[in-house]
Amino acid sequence: MDYFLISDPNESEWNALVNTSPQGTIFSDTRYLSALEVSYTCYLVKAQHGETLAGVVVIEDRGSMHVAPCMYAAYQGILFSHSVSMLASLKRVTREFRLTEYLIQVMCERYGNFSMALSPSFKDLRPFLWHNYHENNAPHFTINNRYTATLELSDFHLQNYLKSIRTVRRQEFKKSTAEITETKNSELFLDLYAKTFERQEITMSSKDLELVNRLITSALTNGFGRLSMATTIDGVASMALFIYDSNCAYYLLGANNPDLRSSGASTALMIDNICHMAKLGLTKLDFIGVNSPNRGDYKLSFNSVLTPYFEVQLDSTSK
């Protein structure tokens, strides 16, 4: 066997992989996972000489893999190490293929099923497509193509950026008189967040609101998030929570006062956060999903790029 598996490595070793892997995101960082208060196990794949080559975090549900995606955790897939990602193209593709095959095998043996929402940076789906390829009666993967929207921040200049966004967004930004401030007032956010869903005839449970509160608290306490709000003369019009890792920012949560929708405050708040994330030196912003018509169109109107990612599902290994 070329590889061996380690479960529950120490946090520093696991987070080091997350921080340096091209597929690593804040959603696999233990600080974020702890706030979710879910059962999970981190695994490292090592070469026989001890080098870490890959890893995966599995969110668990009564002994099986939780069906992806987990709430408020957009991506929970396979991570390849920096050393693997830096191999010459042919070697890298071959190594990543074999590591993925290995993880499919060992995870299916441990959990009896397989379910992940892969990072947009995970490109080679062949190990999933070819699983049990010549066995018609054996289980095969279901692969769902999903989309998010991403914005490059590496060479960000506000005036140039404003020229690139949809005309209506630029007009809203220019007319808005909202004051943008950072805040730690999670209760205010939760109240506005619940009202945002009420407008859609959706009632947020106390359990869901408690989870959102934990995520906000963890992000602010552990230094991987920014909670901000846009206030007009008529009150708080919009609030947003952005979280980030060493490379990318993520628009995780937004809430808006339906009575102040015409103020342009939500657009002003979004652009202020985009500017802030660029100033932090982050290279990309992920709007987290454009898989419903209205929200998807709004996120794309900020000149973001439609970006595919995949959910892979193997319901049973004992069909």
Can you offer a commentary on this structure?
With 319 residues, this protein is α+β, with helices and mostly antiparallel strands. It has 2 domains: 3-146 and 309-314, 3-Layer(aba) Sandwich (Aminopeptidase), CATH 3.40.630; 154-282, Gcn5-related N-acetyltransferase (GNAT) (Aminopeptidase, 3-Layer(aba) Sandwich). It is built from 11 helices and 13 strands. The strands form 2 sheets. The protein has an 8-stranded mixed β-sheet, with helices on both faces. Strands 1, 2, 3, 4 and 5 form a 5-stranded antiparallel β-sheet that branches. The longest helix is centred in the first third of the chain and has 23 residues, at 89-111. The chain is globular. The two termini are 27 Å apart. The mean pLDDT is 95.
Secondary structure: elements and pairs:
Layout: E1 3-7, H1 11-20, H2 30-36, E2 40-47, E3 52-61, E4 64-65, E5 78-80, H3 82-85, H4 89-111, E6 114-117, H5 126-129, E7 142-152, H6 158-164, H7 167-175, E8 179-182, H8 186-198, H9 206-221, E9 225-232, E10 235-244, E11 248-256, H10 265-279, E12 284-286, H11 293-300, E13 305-314
Parallel strand pairs: 11-12
Antiparallel strand pairs: 1-2, 2-3, 3-4, 3-5, 6-13, 7-12, 7-13, 8-9, 9-10, 10-11
